[in-house]
Amino acid sequence: MRLAPRLILAIVLALLAFSGVRPAAVQAATGDHGKTVIFGNLYVRPDEVIDGDVNVIFGNAEVAGHVRGDVNTVFGRCTKDEGAVIDGEEHCLTSEVAQAFLPWVNAPTFMSFADQDKRLLLRLGSSAIVLLVFLLFPLRMRLAHDRVEQHPGLAAVVGIGAAIAAIPLAVVLLVSIVGIPLIALEIAALLGGVWLGTGAVALVVGRRLSELVMPAVTPSPLWALVLGLVVVSAAETVPFVGWAVTAMVWVVGLGASILAFLRPAFVDRVRATIGGPPMRSA
What we know:
The chain has 9 helices and 11 strands. The chain is of the alpha/beta class. α3 packs across α6. It has helices at 3-17, 95-101, 107-136, 138-150, 152-175, 180-213, 221-236, 242-260, 264-274, and strands spanning 26-27, 35-38, 42-44, 49-50, 54-57, 61-63, 66-67, 71-74, 78-80, 85-86, 90-93.
């Protein structure tokens, strides 16, 4: 479908746009040629000197030191402490002023990005990695998708077991000294399993939603993955329960990734041990 490439392009552009996001309360360094902060606050300490302009977008600027340039804030506040020196001009476009010229601007919505910038960046980055894993290992993700669709309970049990076993395994490797380099390999394997499994869960969600909205159309795997990632990411941002959604996706996804590397006959034997129908052929 033509919509899928557009959504992928939008995700890539969003990642590029947010690549300059910095955490809140960023501190300027002496001798820098200006500072620019997006979706965060900037504080210039009394003993610091900024050799250039200070630009803060969707955040607040507090100057207690010396700025050898202009101080510009957009959708935020500018505070000049006692003893501060600003050689240039101060341009402060607060949310109230912006709404006077642009009534359609919703100040609380814009300012809320300052608190959620890191979460949004992590969601976009994680979704981009899942897309990359899908493009590199489409068959393996399809197998993981089949495991989630046919045996979600078994995938959850395997995922919980793998997460629990990872801790003592890391301890054993750490104590053995010789196995310390393998800890990085273990972490990489866990991350790869989570990303692969997240894509599998997103595929299931995307296909189910597409079947409900457009029952006569069979969605492409790429379109189903993108749609599923949007739904899963939105569910993970819900207050109070978002963490539970993330934990469920990670556990089920990790278990499905492990099952994707096992033979179907072996998975059937494990499934028969805990009860349930055998696995259908992929």
